[in-house]
Design brief:
Blueprint: H1 7-18, H2 24-34, H3 41-47, H4 60-63, H5 66-87, H6 93-104, H7 106-116, H8 126-130, H9 137-167, H10 169-173, H11 182-192, E1 199-206, E2 213-220, E3 223-229, H12 232-245
Helix pairs in contact: 3-9, 5-6, 5-9, 6-11, 6-12, 7-9, 11-12
Length: 251
Amino acid sequence: MKPARPKRTRQRAAVKAVKPSLPPEALKEAQEIIGFKFKDAAILERALTHPSAIPPSGDTVKLSNQRLEFLGDRVLNLIIAERLIERRQSDSEGDLAPRLNRLVKKGACAEAMRFLGLQRFILLSESEVAAGGHDRESTLGDACEAVIAAIYQEGGLAAARKFIERAWAPQFENVPAETKDPKTLLQEWAQGQGHPLPDYVVTGRSGPDHAPQYEVEVRLAVGKATATGPSKREAERHAAALMLRTLTGTE
């Protein structure tokens, strides 16, 4: 009679037995779509594993894509920022920041996954699948960031950049040529950073009724800016434009 295995060994065996996985042919197809062959396909499998797919007995931190998502977000921001710096050399920081945030937000990542058709490879719990998880923006966005991290860890920045250039190609082509209203850009920046929406407050009014001057302060979690204009709307636009120019916090 064989001696019983230690409890810790039994627990590891149980986790291994229920660890979610993709069939080898699915992993191969996913790599072909991504355009990168992994030395260790397990990292790609983890990048495509949503936390809901990990059973209670498993280690969500180690087996799901959460940690890779954290890294991938940083890699994506760096590569998109580099691209904007190289291709929009006359833009100020205030012009670049909103464009960056449009291209790195969860919606942009989800769009990249749909463009490549990678959403069907994401491992989810049955309840998440039934709830439409394969088309949920946050799920797709997290998986996309995790895939970027997986590519970066095995192939470095060059490989990650190549993937992003292809996955984001339609979005790069559809970037509006004209700059949006400063208030819209500031709102997009705030949303992209996870901040509450900008708050505009009239702090003063001067001049005669036929030629008034309004003073408006725009307030964000990162700071505030004040500007004036002949109407509340114009003052708000000027304040938003000023805030966009000082988003680095070095005002």
